[in-house]
Amino acid sequence: MRQAQPLKTEGAGPDGAPNIVMVMTDQHAARVMGCAGDEFARTPVLDKLAKQGTRFENCYCPSPLCVPSRMAFLTGLEPHESGVLSNDDYLPSDVPTIAHSLAGAGYDCHLVGRMHFYGPDQLHGFTNRPIGDIGASFPGGSPPDIGPLTKGRGNRGPELEFSGAGETSYQAYDHAVMKEAEATLAHLQRQRAETGRPFFLLISLFCPHPPYIARRADYDAFDGRLPGPMVSRPDSDHPAIAAWRDAGRTDGVSPIAVAASRAAYYGLVQMVDRLCQGIFDMTEDCKNTVTIYTSDHGECLGERGLWWKSVMYDESAKVPLIIRGTAFEPGKQDRRIVSLFDLSATMLSLGDASPLPGHNGQDLRRQETWPDEVISSYYGGLMNIKLADLRHRMIRKSQYKLMWFDGYRPQLFDLDKDPQELTDLSGDTDHLDILSDLSEQLLRGWDPALIAQLQALKGQRSALIRQWVRVTQPAEPYRWIDPRIDRNAYE
Length: 491
Hints:
With 491 residues, the chain is of the alpha/beta class. Helices cover 32% and strands 16% of the residues.
């Protein structure tokens, strides 16, 4: 795949290197922002950040699933390269991350909040993590206790019937993370002024990840005010999507649940936007600070009758990306095809840090000869969706997107002419050369038969780890536990 090409940073070294402050959310669809053209979204804080910085319109995740996408961003490695294929997989501690590299270049690296690390290593190169994940530290561990709202948590259609207004521990977690992040940032800013040492602060929230339950004020801001999904359920599906739809039991979702889920999701985005204001205000006047907002993957939110993530349609595979800093033009909308790989490569280059071995990204400041292509992969493993292991890969190159399915026919879309991805061109004789070229590029260095063997082995390992977790209940010293479980209630 693409290999990182670092640029030399002006004033390189700890004294001249910029601070890097990044907010990563979970499951924020790129399109659900005012600055992205959504007239219903209420995101004034993100809209302001976009005016002050550059918004990348076509940023894709490395995998439309939490753990593989986050580990790919941190390491620059595709899921099959790092071995993190699903939400059950550990990142090996000997695989270096951007935190290792930036710390090696003199940065003070702090992580506050969610990163979905599994296993005993909950730092992976960060020197400090005052608040860890809200979820389990090991696969098979107990999920957060959200009491009566538990019936609304999950990845199947019936859970959507319990979407609505309420308070959850997930919302409380995000408030706690941001409070701690602001205190951490203030400390790091004082330290920079006193010692000159640059810092990398990664702040990660749980929301707007489901359950689709938002606090009353946020929910009411959108209840009855949103249109339905723009793309209706197709009369016939690609067989892989049909299997996904059946496993997710999404065909029986009631119109009331669709409306409630969408209103709650927009409400959670509004909450996230509001929470970001303090951090973005604290970095606004810092000429030596680069501020970043992004997410790990998108959200279908009822488009095509699909929900959550795990598909390669843009609703699921695209993520927001906004960068504010001296190297990024204010108010610019960058339309290049980029990915979270490119974001982490850029961060390393900004810090004059060593490139990570095998990194699949490019510095976003490099304008000439941009390849305009991304690759994303999905192997299955979403919570309570039960399907056989998948080997599903996507390449977006310029206007074309090819979706390749092991065991099924591919799909090809021209996103310039068909932005909603409704017309499959894979059987069109006028596009055979494009299909062939993209297929050859997508399969280069990626062997689905070998990956299937790896998945079988990892499945056996995961089963043993899960049994060990159930029996021993290992300690989780970094995990955040809600001190007020009683807060979980519908409003």
